[in-house]
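New to this. Please check this record:
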Amino acid sequence: MALFDDIVEGFGSSWVSSVLVGIGVALVAPIVVPALAVGIRPLAKAVIKGGMMVYDKGAEVLAETGEQLSDLVAEARSDLDATATAAAEAAASAATDGNSIV
């Protein structure tokens, strides 16, 4: 290691170490990249499958929520219609009771 330090110090600039790192990466990359690609492919596939499952479940939950909301709106509309009908009948009944001619 001291030999390497002496070589680097002898040149006195940081570009030498950068070049050496670049050469090392260029020599190791053809071996490391395919090995990483083989290991990363199943991981990427699992992540994609997980994302698809989350999307499908989210769509299902959203559809169920929309259906429940639609049911609540229909119930509220029915209640309003029933209340309006009862009020109209009460008003009609009050109007006919006060104006009855015998």
About this structure: The longest helix spans residues 15-98. The chain has two helices and no strands. The mean pLDDT is 83. Residues 17 and 23 are 10 Å apart (CA to CA).
